[in-house]
Every structure is written in C-alpha cells, then in structure tokens.
Amino acid sequence: MSIPTQRVREQTTTTLSIPLTDSAGSALSAASLTTLTATMTSLDTGAEVFTDRDVKASLTAGVLALELTPADLTMLTTRSVERRVVTLSATYGSSKAWHQEIPIEVSNLVGVA
C-alpha cells in the first residue's frame, strides 16, 4: 500500500492517520501486534529525528494516530521544504514482520524560529 506524501508545518503539533493492513489487506490491531515502532529520518540531512518510538498504544481499529510534536517538526535545514520519512515497523504472530514508510514534507514557515 502506497501512502501519499504528508505535508505538515514546522513546529506544529500534527496527528497523521495511517491505516495499517497486513499482506492480505486485513486491518492490524494492537492486540495482534507484539511491537509497533516509528522512526523519523531527514532525507535532506540523514539525521534521525526520533528512533524506535513505541506507538502501539496509538493504534485503534487498524488506524494509527501518529502524533508529531513541535520538536519532531523543527527544521534541520534552511530549505523552504524539508523531506523526511517515518518508517513504521511491527512484529506480530510467531515470526511475522511489517514495515511501511510515510513520506513527509515539512514546510518552513516565515517567522517561526
């Protein structure tokens, strides 16, 4: 499943709603997962903004409500738009793994420091 690029404003609390499904298209539930973590990386600098954040508790009815904080969305460059990716990783069942990338563009707002 391809997820379109999410456009967000710098230093603004934002919640992304991300549907999570297995290879058969069935919704993943928190009860069925052993782990669910998120890592955000800047594609422009290579810096990790956060690593292995436990987000399992934010999954309801197959939809992850991923809250990004102002600290998560602080600009790392002087570009007008900074490209980032959030990688979600889950384990479930006896030996199953699931991964999804969510492309993000952070808009640099004039007057926000």
Topology:
Elements: E1 6-9, E2 14-19, E3 33-42, E4 48-54, E5 59-60, E6 63-68, E7 81-92, E8 96-107
Parallel strand pairs: 1-8
Antiparallel strand pairs: 2-6, 3-4, 3-7, 5-6, 7-8
Number of strands: 8
According to CATH, the fold-level topology is: Immunoglobulin-like
Q: What's the quaternary structure here?
A: single chain
CATH class group: Mainly Beta
Question: Any low-confidence stretches, pLDDT <50, length ≥5?
Answer: none
Total number of helices = 0
Helical content stands at under 10%
Write up what this structure looks like:
The protein is built from no helices and 8 strands. A 5-stranded mixed beta sheet has the order 1-8-7-3-4, with no helix packed on it. It starts with 5 loop residues before the first strand and ends in a 6-residue tail after the last strand. A hairpin with a 3-residue loop joins strand 7 and strand 8 (96-107). The chain is an all-beta fold and 113 residues long. It has a single domain, classed as Immunoglobulin-like (Sandwich). Helix content is 0%, strand content 52%. The model has no long low-confidence stretch (mean pLDDT 92).
